[in-house]
């Protein structure tokens, strides 16, 4: 069953990163890997940068495993929209958190599945930092040098937050570099070469160098 996104308004799309081609690539990739997630039997699934809630809601609608679904976003407008998406689609067992995920030490060693479509667009380091301070839609795309400022912080957090059986699904753009792990899908969108990768804890440690 596809997630219902008809409630998302034009105003929402100006304030929160809307469901786009990279969103649906991430959704399709994670859904195609559901049998792997079922084997993990996750207790906690977290989406970092929940945005509209389309990805998290798709997983929360799935009845093949029972988990607590957590969405985190620095943009307060995004957390409100994600919550309305989950409610509209009659999802249960979820929590939405507005804040900086990298300050949430309470998640360490507890998360079984992390999902993230990070800000990956190449910008200056200064623009990345300014967009993160704004806590608005710009924080969802400005990625800093090589588009890696957020991604490198994500790796550090994921290594600490994942349980021993945990995995992370991350979307990235070819200019961000290459990463250890299993590439689940690739797609060219305009001038962007996008891919979704599944990484275990040891592969994340390798990425950290």
UniProtKB/TrEMBL annotation:
GO terms for molecular function: nucleic acid binding; protein methyltransferase activity; S-adenosylmethionine-dependent methyltransferase activity. Residues 45-126 form the Methyltransferase small domain. GO terms for biological process: methylation. It holds the Pfam family MTS. InterPro entries: DNA_methylase_N6_adenine_CS (IPR002052), Euk-Arch_PrmC-MTase (IPR052190), SAM-dependent_MTases_sf (IPR029063), Small_mtfrase_dom (IPR007848). Keywords: Methyltransferase, S-adenosyl-L-methionine, Transferase. The keyword rRNA-binding does not apply. The keyword Methyltransferase applies. CDD domains: AdoMet_MTases. GO terms for cellular component: eRF1 methyltransferase complex. Belongs to the eukaryotic/archaeal PrmC-related family. PANTHER family: METHYLTRANSFERASE N6AMT1. This is Methyltransferase small domain-containing protein.
């Amino acid at each position: 069953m596809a997630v219902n996104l008809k409630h998302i308004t034009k105003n929402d799309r100006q304030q929160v990163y809307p469901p786009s081609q990279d969103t649906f690539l991430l959704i399709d990739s994670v859904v195609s890997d559901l049998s792997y997630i079922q084997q993990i039997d996750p207790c906690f699934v977290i989406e970092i940068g929940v945005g509209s809630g389309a990805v998290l809601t798709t997983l929360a609608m799935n009845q093949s495993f029972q988990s607590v679904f957590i969405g985190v976003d620095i943009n307060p407008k995004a957390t409100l929209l994600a919550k309305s998406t989950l409610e509209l689609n009659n999802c249960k067992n979820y929590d939405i958190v507005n804040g900086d995920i990298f300050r949430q030490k309470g998640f360490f060693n507890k998360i079984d599945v992390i999902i993230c479509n990070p800000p990956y667009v190449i910008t200056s380091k200064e623009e990345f930092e300014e967009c993160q301070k704004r806590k608005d839609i710009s924080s969802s795309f400005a990625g800093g040098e090589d588009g890696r400022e957020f991604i490198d912080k994500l790796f550090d957090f994921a290594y600490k937050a994942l349980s021993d059986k945990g995995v992370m699904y991350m979307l990235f753009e070819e200019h961000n570099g290459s990463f250890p792990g299993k590439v689940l899908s690739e797609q060219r969108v305009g001038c962007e070469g996008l891919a979704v990768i599944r990484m275990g804890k040891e592969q994340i440690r390798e990425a950290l160098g």
